[in-house]
Amino acid sequence: NKAAIKAMIVNRVGDFGLALGIFSIYIFFNSVEYSVVFALVPSFADHYLNFLGFDVRLLTAVGIFLFIGAVGKSAQLGLHTWLPDAMEGPTPVSALIHAATMVTAGVFLLARCSPIFEYAPDALIIVTVVGAMTAFFAATTGLLQNDLKRVIAYSTCSQLGYMIFACGLSNYSVGVFHLANHAFFKALLFLGAGSVIHAVADEQDMRRMGGLKKLVPLTFALMTIGSLALMGFPFLTGFYSKDVILEVAYGKFTVYGHFAYWLGTAAAFFTAFYSMRLSFLTFLSDPNGYKPVLLGAHDAPLRMALPLVVLSVPSIFIGYCSRDLFIGLGTDFWNNAIFVLPSALNAIDAEFISHFYKLLPVTLSIIGASSALLYYTFFSGDLYWLKTSTFGRKLYGFLNRKWFF
């Protein structure tokens, strides 16, 4: 009940912002039809409002109001607290609604309203900064979560941050491409988590699992595919969208573009670390749970395993197969659905950045996964020292308490 009430209240804040945006559009444009509003937007580019003695651009105000709606629905920093708590719901609901459909509505709103945001550059800067901070915040928070579904929930929050800041940098097509790719491997991870929870008598604490690799080998293999796709491992689905987002962020050659690139790159490292931590604590470590529960663990029956197998195929191949259609140079897939000012187009600029900045995110992802595996295999005893040292205790408490949000 608390999770449901929190989701309702937090989303009302976003709904209020969205309502203000819609009312503002209706007052000044006398319509809320997409075609009419988008046709009139250029004529309002230099229109100002006087708000509390300050002159504010009309389109900037409208863009910020619409973005508040996206912040609430897509669980961005500040209004994100409802999403991890929503994991109290059934796992198939988490897979469908909290990974693939409902929480991505904010990203869709930004892309659909691209003609408004393109003429509101100040609003786009806010979108970029909030998205980048969300990606970093959620990635660091996921490092120390012990609930299996909450780790995946924070990874969803982090990936939504990537999509949002891609839209903030006028790369709406790349953001929606990552939205589509993310749906497959995140649904695979959630359903895989449901299979694991079902196998161990509804236990969700990873510290009470371990050793499940031999007990649920099919689930282990399929969740490994999902985790690698989430990390952006080369040639899996996540690699073809997440790394492109970071490339075009750096290729923007602006302060906020580079801000998004560096926070996104750091988030990529932490994402790989907590993904490997999840795999290790759940499947690879020594058994830590109750003996009767682990002895009774069993792999998913056919009706549970079939959706996992089906989702694993696009989690590997869909990014490669659809990248030219969605984000290829010169593609006309989006037609008039997305509008970008010619001065904001920078897909070609990204081709000219140094190979170092192109390879850094994927290199850090591999280092993050490797360091997590090595740390928890050989140096897990040092975790006690980390928790008890002065700095470590403060850092551990800060991250474990979710930055005190």
Automatic annotation (TrEMBL):
Keyword Transmembrane helix carried by entry: yes
Q: Name one GO cellular component term.
A: membrane
Would the keyword Membrane turn up in this protein's UniProt record? yes
Database matches in InterPro entries: NADHpl_OxRdtase_5_subgr (IPR018393), ND/Mrp_TM (IPR001750), NU5C-like (IPR003945)
Gene Ontology molecular functions: NADH dehydrogenase (ubiquinone) activity; NADH dehydrogenase activity
Transmembrane segment boundaries: 49-72, 93-111, 123-144, 151-172, 184-203, 215-239, 259-280, 300-320, 326-347, 359-378
* A single GO BP: ATP synthesis coupled electron transport
Topology relative to the membrane: Multi-pass membrane protein
Question: Which cell locations does it reside in?
Answer: Membrane
Q: Where is the NADH:quinone oxidoreductase/Mrp antiporter transmembrane domain?
A: 2-252
Q: What is its main location?
A: membrane
The alphabetical list of record keywords is:
Membrane, Transmembrane, Transmembrane helix
Highest taxon, organism lineage: Eukaryota
**Which NCBIfam families did the record assign?**
NDH_I_L (TIGR01974)
Its name, as the record gives it, is NADH:quinone oxidoreductase/Mrp antiporter transmembrane domain-containing protein
Organism classification: Eukaryota, Sar, Stramenopiles, Ochrophyta, Dictyochophyceae
